[in-house]
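Before a colleague's protein record goes any further, I have to sign it off. My question to you is simply how this chain folds and whether the C-alpha cells agree. I do not need a full report, just your reasoning and any doubts. This is what I was given:
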Amino acid sequence: MLDMFVQMFSYGFMRRAIIVGVLVALCAALLGVTLVLKRYSMIGDGLSHVGFGALCVALAMNVAPLAVSVPVVIISAFLLLRVSDTGKIKGDAAIALISSTSLAVGILVTSMTTGLNSDVNGYMFGSILAMSSTDVIISIVLSVAVLVLYFVFYNKIFAVTFDESFAAATGTRTGMYNTLIALLTAITVVIGMRIMGAMLISSLVIFPALTAMRVCNTFRKVVVTSAVISVVCFFAGLFISFVFSMPAGASVVAVNAVMFAIFSLVGMIKRKVS
C-alpha cells in the first residue's frame, strides 16, 4: 500500500491533480453547504454545462479554454440569478433553461468543427492527464481567491443562507452576497471540470454537504465536516483511480456515495439512541 502511495506521488501529473483537486474539493464543499441549504444545489450542474459549451467554442477557435470559460460561466451565474429573481422563471427551471441551451451549443459547435476528440472528452468526463502547468497555476490562484473571499465574508454568507429576509432587514446587501456566492461557485465549477468533468463536477458541490448534514446540526460543524469529507473522498477516489486504472471523476463520486451511505446510517443510529 505504501509503495503505491510513493509511486502515485512520483508522477508529476498526479501531484498536479492532487494539489488542484484538494483545493477545488475544499471550495466546492464550503460553497455546497450554502447552495444546498438555499435549495440551489443544482447550480453546479447547470454551470458545468455552460462551462462545457464555452470550452467547446474555445477549442474550436483555438483559444485558451480557461480564458474563455471562466468569464462566460461567471456571466451565466449572474444571468441565472437575474432570471430567477424576476419571479417568472424560478430556481430549477432557470438552471435547466440555461444549462441545456449551453450544452446544445457546445455539442453543435463540436460536431461542426473538431468533432468529439480527446480534448472534448477530457472536459466532458474529466482527465488528470489534460492538466498542464499553466492550468495548475491558474487553478491554484483562482482556488485560493475563492477560499479567501469565502472566509472574509463568512458571516455575511451565513446570514443570507439562513434567513435572507432578516439579513436584508438588518441592512445586509443580500443581492451582493448572493452574487458573490454565484461568482465563487462559477469559478469553482470551471477549475474543477479538468479533473471531474462537466458531467460529474456538481457531485463535489452536493455530496459532501449532504453527507455532513446526516450527523451535524450546526452550520459551522456542517461546513468543517463537509470540507474534511470532500478532501478525504477526493484523495481516496484519486488513489483508487490510480491503483485500478479507473476514471478519476467517477471514482471520486463513487467514494462520496459510499461515504454518504455510511453517514446516513450513523445518523439514523444516532437519532434512535438519542
